[in-house]
Amino acid sequence: MIGRHIPKELKEMALSMSLQGLRDLEIPEYIGVSVPMLKKLRSAHRTGDLFPPPPIDRGRPRMLTAVQVKVRIQYLSPECCPTPTVPP
C-alpha cells in the first residue's frame, strides 16, 4: 500500500498539535493526516529520525578508469606544467 506524500510543513504541524495535547482522533479532522501516520511521526521524533540533515555529497560516487587516473596524476605532478610567462 502506497501512501501519499506529506509535506514537511504538514508533518511539523501535525507533530506540534500532537505534542501540545490534541487527541489523535481530532488532528486528522484539521490536517488530514491519518492516526497511524501520527504515531510514526511521534516515534520518529523520539528517535531523532524525523528530519535528518541533508547528505553532504549527493549523487552516485564516480569510478575513474585507469586512463582518467593516469591523466589526473600527470596533471597533479609538479613537473607537469611550467610556470606561465607573461609577455611584457
Could you explain the architecture of this structure?
With about 90 residues, this protein is mostly helical. It has helices at about 10-20, 25-30, 35-45, 65-75. The termini are far apart.
Overview in brief:
With 88 residues, this protein is mainly α. Helix content is 45%, strand content 0%. Helix 1 packs across helix 3 (35-47).
The rough form would be described as rod-shaped
- Span between termini: 73 Å
Number of strands: 0
Following the backbone from N to C, one meets helices and strands in this order, namely: HHHH
Mean pLDDT: 81
State the low-pLDDT regions, or none.
none
Report Rg.
27 Å
Strand proportion, as a percent range, falls in under 5%
Number of helices: 4
**Category by helix and strand content:** mainly alpha
Approximately how much helix is present in the residues? 40-55%
Reported for the largest beta sheet, the result is:
none
